[in-house]
Each structure stands twice: as C-alpha cells, then as structure tokens.
Amino acid sequence: MPVLTIDGRKTEVAEGATILEACEQIGVEIPTLCHLKPLTAEGACRMCLVEVEGARALQTACSTPCTEGMVVHSKSEPVVNARRFVLDLMLSNHNKDCFACAKSGECKLQNYCYEYGVEEATFTGERVLAPIDKSSPFFDYDPEKCILCHRCVRTCHERQANNTLSTNGRGFGTNVGLPFGKDFDNYNCVSCGNCVSACPTGALTPKVKDRFRLWEVEKTLTTCSYCGVGCQMNLLTKDNKVVGVEPADGPTNQNLLCVKGKFAYNFINHPDRLTQPLIRKDGELVEATWDEALDLVAGKIKAIKGETGADSIAGFASARATNEENYAFMKMMRAVIGTNNVDHCARLCHASTVAGLATTLGSGAMTNSIPETVEADVIFVTGSNTTETHPVIGAQIRQALLRGAKLIVAEPRRIDLAEQADIFLQIKPGTNVALYNGMMNVVLTEGLADMEYVNARTEEFEALKEVIKDYTPEHVAEICGIDADELRAAARLYAKADKAPIFYSMGVTQHSTGTAGVMGTSNLALLCGKIGKRGCGVNPLRGQNNVQGACDMGCLPGDYTGYQKVANEAARKKFEAAWGVELPTAAGLTVNEVMDAIIDDKIRCLYIMGENPMISDPDLNHVEHALNKCEFLVVQDIFLTETAMLADVVLPACTFAEKDGTFTATDRRVQRIRAAIPMVGDSRADWDILKDVMARLGYENSFNSPEEIMAEIAAITPQYGGINFTRLETESLCWPCPDATHPGTPTLHTKAFSRGERALFVPHHYKPSAELPDADYPFILTTGRVLHQYHTRTMTGKSEGVNKLGGVSIIEINPADATKLGINDGDIINVASRRGEVQTKAVVTDKLKAGVVFMPFHYADGPANKLTNAALDPIAKIPEFKVCAVSIKK
C-alpha cells in the first residue's frame, strides 16, 4: 500500500489507486468534468490536473496511479492556472446562454468557471455551430453545449453496453452523435436516458413539461415502481408535482435506469387520475363521498357473507402495491372476511416458480442477487427477453460480456441478446422441458456433472438419470427445432463454467408444463453444482415491482406470509393467535378459478386492488363475461382501468410517489419507497383504505402507519424478522433476515437448502403444449412484453414519448409467412383463435421462425389475451400464455 503526500498530508492507499481516489480518501476536492464512477478513467477534460514533484508536466489525477513516496500538490499556482486555461478553452467553444439553459445551477462547467473566476473566454475565432437534435421523444442534444468529456459515450458503451453513441470526426470537427447521422428514434437507442444523467453540462437534457432549476426542486429517494429490478431513484418535485427523475446509486442499478424509470413518470400527476370514489347508479359510475362508498362496500360484503358464506367472496391483491398494503389486503380477506380466496397476478406469471423451486430447493425465489450478475463466466438466458423486460439486468449481463463472459440464449424469438450470444438456441415455443433434459443428457453422458456436489447435497439422482437417458441431443433437436451439436456446445459451456447463473422469466413459467420447466432449470443447476454459490444459481426475473413481495406477504390461496401453509395447523394457530380470530382451514381459489366460480354462481363479490384482469388475464371474453356477471365488483386503483369500468364501486388509490412503504425486488431485496408529494385529489393509500374497510366490517387493527404494519409482518414472518424501517433507511436487505442483527442473505442455499440438508431432483418428461397448430389455426402464437410498455399500460400509457415508440398493438410475423398470406409490413390484419379475434398491425421480421408469431399483451386496442389459452399447469395453475394456435388473415 503506497504512502504519498498530498498538500502536506500523508496518506496510505490501496495498490493501483489513482491520485484522485487518494484525494477523495482524505477529503481533498479535485475538479472533474470527464470523470464518473465507475467509468474507465479517460483524462479527457484535463480539469483534474495536479502537480507531482519530479514529474515533467502536470498529471491527470483521475488516471495517474499513486506510487510510494509521491508528493502531490492539488492547488499550486501552476495547477490553478492550468485549470483556468482549460476552462477558458472550453468556454471559447461553448454556447454561454446560461440563463435559458435547463442545467443552470447544476452545470459543472458553469460552477467551475465561477469557482476559478473565468467569466469570459479570451480565445476568439471559429466556434461549433450546430442545430439541437430533438429526434428523441425523451431528450434533446445540443452540440453547442457539449464539452467532449465523453461521459455519455462511455456510459452508453461501458454501463448500458448498448453502443449507440460514438465520438465522430477529428480535430475541431469532433462531435458526439450516432453513427452515419442517424436519429435517436430510428437507431438502436433504447432511450434509457443514462447518457442524460451522466452529462455534466446542458448538452443532454430531458424534455419536460414543467421546467425547473436545481434550487427549486426537492429530491426524494425511492424505489422504481415498474419491473422487479428494484432500481433506486430520486423523484424531483416542484409545487407538489413530480417533474423529473434521477438515478440513484442503489445496489441493483448503480445509477442506471431504463426508459420507463427515467422518463415514464407522467402518470403520477396525470389529469386522468382517479381522485374521488365512484359508485354505480342507474348503470353509470358517479362520484361519491368516501363514507358513502365504503359503507356500501362493507354493507354488501356483510350481506353476501351472511347469505352465502365467506367463501362466496374473493379478492385479488396487487403486485404493484407495497408489502404493507398486500399484507393488509391478505389479512382483510382471511381474518376479517374469513376466506382464503385471495390471489394476485403472480398466478399469471410466476406461480410455477413458487411451486417448482419451493419443491426442489425449499424457496420459490431468485437464489442469487442482482449485483452478482457482472461476475459471471457464462450466463444462460432462457425464456427471458431481459434487455426489454428487465433492462437494467440486461445491461449488467452485457457488462459481464464486456468482461469476457460467454452467453447462451434459448428463446423462440431472436431477441437482442441473441445477437451477442455465443450460442443461440431458437427453440420451438413450449419445448423448454425437452431442452433442459437434453442439456442434462449431455452433461451426464460426457461426465460433466459435479458428482461431489450431487452426492453431498442432492437426492433422487437415480430418478433423474432414468428420465434424462431418453433425451439424446438428436431427439431433443427434433422436438425443439434446433441443431444437436449446438445443444451439446451449450451444455458443455454451462457445465464447465465456474460461475454460471441461469436467468429465466415467463418464457419458462407461462406454460401448461411451467412447473416442470422451472424444475428443469433447477435440476440442471444442481447437476452442475451451481446452486448455493456466488455468481451462479437459478434466477427467476419477476415482472412487476412487488410481485415477489406480494407472494411473500401471503397473497396466495394456500399461503400465509413467508409461505407458511394454510394447511399446516401450527401455522394456522400461530396466525389465529396473532390476529385474534379463527381462520378458515381450506385453501382458496386461484385467479383463474375465481372467474369460473363467478360464472358458476359460487363467487358473488370480488374485490380487486391494483390489478387489471380485463387486459392481463387469458381468454378475455371469458373474463369479461365473468366480471359482468359478478354481483358486486370493487376495484381499487389509480386510474379508471378497463376492469374498473365494470365495477360497482371504484376506490381511488394513490401512487408510489405519494406514500411510504416497501417493495421487495426480484432478488428478495426489501427497499423503501417514500412519499415525495401529497396525495392527489381525495385519493388515499391502499393500506389506509383497507384499514377503514376492516373497521367497518368490525375488525380494529392496531397499526396506524406502514412502519407499524412492517413491524407486524416481521413478528409473524421468519424471513422478514429482522427487517424494519429504521434499518431500511440506510441499507437494503435480502431475505431471509431473521433478526435485527442479521445482514440479510444475498445468496441462498450456501450451507443448506431451505427445504433441508439436500435439494431434490424432480425430473419430468416433455409434454407438448395444450393447444397446437392445425389446419384451421396453423400458427403458434406466443406473447410477451416490449421495452417501452409495462403490463397493462395503466402507467406507461400516460407517457407521450413511450406511446410514440410503442403505442400500438402489433404482431410479428416471419417474411416467408407474410409473403404466403400477401401481408406487407404495416398492414392491419385479423388474428383469430378458438376464443376470440383481434385486429393488429403486422411487423414483418426474421426474429421468428416460419409458423410462429408474436404479440405483446399490453394493449386494450388489439388485446393479445383475447386469443390466449386458459389451459392450466396442473400444479401451479398458471395459464399457458406462451402457446396457442391462431389463424391470420389480411
């Protein structure tokens, strides 16, 4: 560890540390413009020049390593003069209209010029004159304010790893831009805005409706409310409105955001927000007071329960609400109403994960943490379009590739990651189980299994071998439509790697064999000894901000909090004692079963919090029939969604920006959300509404805040036992965290498995999907998400920029199929299945093999789920969204 002297002060630093890092260590401030952690040091701006005794010239602090005995002067006359000279040069080629600049007050160039007394440029002559590039729907680029620090370019290359921006030209004509003069909205830019966040001047600025200066806004640290990555962000607020978003240095995002997190915040203060309760009178929804609405809700629940029992009532909790609110909802359904008919949209996305991994490992959640991604040697992505559905994890996968990692992708579509994959297996939809069995066959046949691990830490290995022996590479290649040698290569690459995580999402889970597919990923990882190790594991990527938390909170028909089983008498007695009531003993109905039960007159009342089944559920005609038939439908949401339009009572909830609480990210990481603005209109927090409903039903809770609800959760949930708001102010915690001194558990199963000493192999034979193409419906339809939209568009649908890039329903179709049908790119076509028909826009692309088509499910105009099949996985009861048969006509 070198010892050096800085401005007369001795300090010891780690080997390889730069002078800048040494100065930061002892509190000596060095000005920087091009430096940004953790980007590679470039030394382009020269603002960090320091004097090193014995050196021939001034040195750049950001890129010069410390050496033993080095003597550094950070504020000597030559240093100060050099910095003034650098600023003078920059200012001579800069648009100095600071009064009109959106970055005024936080522009580093402006601040340094003030600090060093540089008021006017002394260099005269030619200056860069260029128009502002407004081609992005989300931000503007002003070349006249660019100082060529390259922070944006390096952020795009090293952090987002998208390679969109580049430095073009030479000499005085050097500029930052896109290759070949392309525009942002028609190149490979993903509109993440991370370049905007990195820019130290006003060269890159977000398009905003409400202009503001730095000193006018307040910043509130919170957690993103979109996908399950759990990105930390600062909400910028002015006059009780959210006017912008900045990334924060959270453990899962490290100052990165995606297009939704950075720019799609307009829903918070959108004029279409629900601000007053609505009651249906004479067939129309009309405004009502809170007392009138809640008295009606409580009165109808009491009446229906009195007439036909508690099990004629059901409730859907929300993957978008907080842990505290989901707990309150589950408690209302069980302790107050008296039924286990509580479920939520995890049933539609990761129920097979919960069932599958809980069986094989004992815990139905991501085994490893997101920050471990960049450490991988080989990454296996299967059933996940990660760069679009979980963009910040996608960026970290690409960061790992920059560090030399290898990538295997198994997907029916040629997703963006497939272009960078060392091996791309373009499998037929619905053949995941065969694929994993085939990889395990190669692992066993070629002696690549980690038998020491298998013998010490697993059971039922012989049963696995018995099933796997039938899945030779040639046999699997025929089932999946892939090359047998590529299958062998993928198995070898994965098995031989030291650190090799598997990432999967709904391309694995949303099948009638979804649980078998999940177990297949677990079997493969166990066979190769890759569970319970850092940088490895089986990692299901949860699609919504708190779908993990909603499961943890017991919003499942057979589980209390922490997956304590309703059927377990000891668990039931524990919750009865905590809540002071007698609880029902039988597991309740799932989301899909509730719809059937309404049609069969078994469910009369349905209470939906923050879900939109009229877009998200399969076979929407069936769903609409059920909701229209439901005797009493309550919807609690932030907008009048397609589902809320059918309700008898609509209760206005507030957004994440208006309340406190916690979300649990996909890696089991519990993090705070914090109120940044007052509640809009007369809306209320979900937990507060639920507490009021419970009181009107005769049950008084002791909690009066989300913090107190979390304390109640911790008292009865072992995994959350050590989690409280005080700790979460300064840290995030991955469960299990059993007590207040426990640091949390980023990596599961390191010593023992949640189910016991040994994990369980559970092999399955391949079974075809429930509905396959035939003469009447000759195409396989598979569904999914796109980058610029989120779930049912309740939130993203309120963003102009998002809707410009992804605002209409589409269907992707192979060029050969399009030619046969006479379909051109952009044509409006009819797509029909046995359940319904929609019109949508054709996108002709080679991303799919002939015979397979793809539709995003987000859109009410052209809803893919009018077509999808409600056939269920027999174990998890998850619908088969990913495979159904359709016909197509121009």
Folded structure, characterized:
- The chain is α/β, with parallel strands linked by helices and 890 residues long.
- It is built from 29 helices and 37 strands.
- The strands form 10 sheets. It has a 7-stranded mixed β-sheet, sandwiched between helices. The chain has a 6-stranded mixed barrel with strand order 30-34-31-33-32-37. A 5-stranded mixed β-sheet has the order 2-1-5-3-4, sandwiched between helices.
- Strand 3 (49-52) and strand 4 form a beta hairpin.
- The relative contact order is 0.11.
> Roughly what percent helix?
25-40%
Query: Per DSSP, what share of the residues sits in E-state strands of 2 or more residues?
Result: 15-25%
Terminal CA distance reads 71 Å
| Total of DSSP H or I helical runs spanning 4+ residues | 29
